[in-house]
Design brief:
Blueprint lengths: L10 H29 L3 H25 L2 H4 L4 H19 L2
Helix pairs in contact: 1-2, 1-4, 2-4
Length: 98
């Protein structure tokens, strides 16, 4: 009988990976929206793009706040937590420049 083993990530690694993927998506969408806003000449579309950009900023803020929770401080891989916090901080910094 053959034994099959399945390697899975620990819950903390999976959570941090998912959160990092989310902030990366928010960051890329935000950069795309900023580029579109700069070139947009249609006023109704411009308002929609600006609203979408505000939604991305709201998501980035929420993801950043997750990094500051006590649950994150209790995770065993504090290097990954520090990386996540830095990535979210940089994303929010890009919002302050636009």
């Amino acid at each position: 009988m053959k034994t099959v083993s399945c390697h899975t990530q620990a819950p903390a690694e999976s959570l941090l990976g998912t959160l990092c993927s989310q902030i990366a998506w928010v960051d890329s969408q935000s950069q795309m929206l900023q580029g579109l806003i700069q070139r947009c000449v249609d006023i109704p579309l411009l308002h929609r793009l600006q609203a979408d950009l505000l939604e991305m900023k709201s998501r980035a803020t929420a993801l950043h706040q997750l990094g500051s929770t006590a649950v994150m401080d209790q995770m065993s891989d504090q290097l990954s937590v520090a990386f996540y916090r830095e990535v979210t901080r940089r994303t929010l910094d890009r919002f302050s420049r636009c």
